[in-house]
Amino acid sequence: MADLDLPGFRFHPTEEELLNFYLKKVVFGHKLHFDIIGFLNIYRHDPWELPGLAKIGEREWYFYVPRDRKQGPSGAGRPNRTTLNGFWKATGSDRTIRCLTDPKKILGLRKTLVFYNGRAPRGSKTDWVMNEYRLTPQNCSSSQEDIVLCKIYRKATSLKVLEQRAAMEEEEMEQRAAMEEEEMFKSSASSPQDSYMSVSLMESEINIFCKGVSNEEDQDQQHDHEQEQEQEQEQEQELIKEEHVEGVQEVILVNKEAETCAASMTKPSLTLVNDKFLPQLQLPGKISNNLDWMQDPFFTQIRSPWLDNWMTPTYANLLL
């Protein structure tokens, strides 16, 4: 069928067609014109491997499966449906498939199974589903019942189911964590000496940590105090320097003022615009008894006898 590669062909038979045509012809040895469904022991594979092993199918995959029954008294002839990583578990009872044209005629039975990861009785449910079709004992012999037709498909999972699965997984994780805590507590309780040692070690570590913290705080405080002292000393030195500078400046000002005063005392009082000094007036000295100033040429021109009588030493002294 794969060699024909018919465009638009879809293999989607009804349950009546699967039982009354495909399975019945194979069970009774009739040869089909097209090799659409192949033989495969699906229990040797996990369900996610089966789509690649089917001859045809996009969402549904079909196989003829020989029934592998369990051996020994525990098996009691039941088919073995375990795989390498899980097992197929039946859900509900078998359903009878009747003919559409004749409802009283039973064509076969259908069993629905779900794949679980892990081993029974524990296992996690998956969304892989299998419908197993087989003929009734009235339609075939016991040896012919060992061949069944299986349809494998993946069930669409709703959001509600996904949320439920996530909640279940969280619960399982919490239970595992609680069990681990209980085991740890039991192991610690079984050895009180070890627990006492661990407690004492924890206390010693806490004490060492507290001491280290207190030492660090003391060191920080001491460092801050030293910094404050250094800052105070620097401020005092700066104040002393400022006072010294101010004193020196005052002394310089005083010296300048003294120099200016002395200069003003020594310099003549009359000055010109270009800082040129006028010559100091020369006054006559103390009039002597011999009246030297009377001998001045200018003064002799205006002398008179009457003035000579008055210019005696006595009157001259009075004039001075």
UniProtKB/TrEMBL annotation:
<protein>
    <recommendedName>
        <fullName>NAC domain-containing protein</fullName>
    </recommendedName>
</protein>
<dbReference type="GO" id="GO:0006355">
    <property type="term" value="P:regulation of DNA-templated transcription"/>
</dbReference>
<dbReference type="GO" id="GO:0003677">
    <property type="term" value="F:DNA binding"/>
</dbReference>
<keyword id="KW-0805">Transcription regulation</keyword>
<keyword id="KW-0804">Transcription</keyword>
<dbReference type="InterPro" id="IPR003441">
    <property type="entry name" value="NAC-dom"/>
</dbReference>
<dbReference type="InterPro" id="IPR036093">
    <property type="entry name" value="NAC_dom_sf"/>
</dbReference>
<feature type="region of interest" description="Disordered">
    <location>
        <begin position="216"/>
        <end position="238"/>
    </location>
</feature>
<dbReference type="Pfam" id="PF02365">
    <property type="entry name" value="NAM"/>
</dbReference>
<keyword id="KW-0238">DNA-binding</keyword>
<keyword id="KW-0539">Nucleus</keyword>
<feature type="domain" description="NAC">
    <location>
        <begin position="5"/>
        <end position="155"/>
    </location>
</feature>
